[in-house]
Design a protein that fits this description.
Layout lengths: L2 H17 L5 H12 L7 E5 L6 E5 L8 H17 L6 E7 L2 H9 L1 H21 L12 E7 L5 E10 L1 E3 L6 E3 L2 H9 L1 H4 L2 E3 L1
Antiparallel strand pairs: 1-2, 3-5, 3-8, 4-5, 6-7
Helix pairs in contact: 1-2, 4-5
C-alpha cells in the first residue's frame, strides 16, 4: 500500500465529511478510486495457472490517472519518450506560479484558471524568445507540466517548463542559440517579473 492510499483510507472519510460539500465531484471520485485500488473492495480477476494447477485471485487496479500505484509505469514511459524528443544542447527549467491571493479562485474555477495559466506562461516564453534582443527566434520548443500541490501537500498550482537554450526563426530558418549572457539576463530579469522562477 502506498502512502497516499494509506492516507486516504485512514483519513479520507473524515476529510470528505468536513470538506466534501466544497469539493468538485471528480476529486471525490479520485479519492474513492485510490482507496479501493487493488483492495478487496475492488473487482477481482481469477487466474488458473496450468503450470502449478492453482487458482489465483488478483484484485484489480483502479487505473485512475491520479493514482501513483497505477501510473508509475506510464509516468516512466512518458518521461523516456520526452527525453528522446529533446533537442540537442542545454535546457532550462522555468516555473510559473499563481499568486496566493488568486489560488482560492483557481481551486473553484480550475478549467478556466489552469487554461489561463498555461496561456499566459506559454505566451511569456514565446514573447521572450521572439524578442531580437534575446533570441530572435519565433518558434521556441518547450514542454509544460501542471502541478497543483506543493511539497507540503498544500494547494499550490504551478507549471514547470522544460525550455531549450534557443529557438528557431521562421524568418531565416536558423536556430538561434542562447548565450551565457542571455541566459543570465533572462533568468534574473523578465521571466521573474512575469511570475516565473528559473530552476
Amino acid at each position: 500500500m502506498g502512502a497516499l492510499q494509506q492516507l486516504f483510507r485512514e483519513h479520507g472519510a473524515g476529510y470528505l465529511a468536513r470538506f466534501g460539500g466544497a469539493m468538485p465531484a471528480n476529486h471525490k471520485k479520485v479519492i474513492g478510486a485510490i482507496e479501493r485500488c487493488r483492495s478487496e473492495q475492488a473487482a477481482a480477476t481469477r487466474y488458473h495457472c496450468q503450470a502449478c494447477g492453482h487458482t489465483h485471485v488478483i484484485a484489480r487496479a483502479c487505473g485512475n490517472r491520479h493514482c501513483p500505484g497505477c501510473q508509475q509505469r506510464k509516468t516512466q514511459d512518458w518521461l523516456q519518450c520526452q527525453l528522446q524528443r529533446r533537442l540537442p544542447g542545454h535546457h532550462f527549467m522555468l516555473t510559473f506560479t499563481v499568486p496566493e491571493c488568486l489560488r482560492e479562485f483557481l481551486r473553484s474555477h480550475q478549467r478556466i484558471g489552469y487554461g489561463a495559466l498555461f496561456a499566459a506562461s506559454a505566451g511569456a516564453i514565446k514573447k521572450l524568445a521572439a524578442d531580437p534582443r534575446r533570441l530572435g527566434g519565433d518558434i521556441p520548443g518547450f514542454l509544460g507540466v501542471l502541478h497543483t500541490w506543493g511539497r507540503q501537500l498544500q494547494y499550490h498550482p504551478h507549471i514547470h517548463y522544460l525550455v531549450p537554450g534557443g529557438a528557431l526563426s521562421s524568418t531565416d530558418r536558423q536556430w538561434h542559440a542562447s548565450s551565457a549572457v542571455t541566459d543570465r539576463r533572462n533568468g534574473a530579469g523578465d521571466d521573474r517579473r512575469n511570475g516565473a522562477s528559473s530552476g
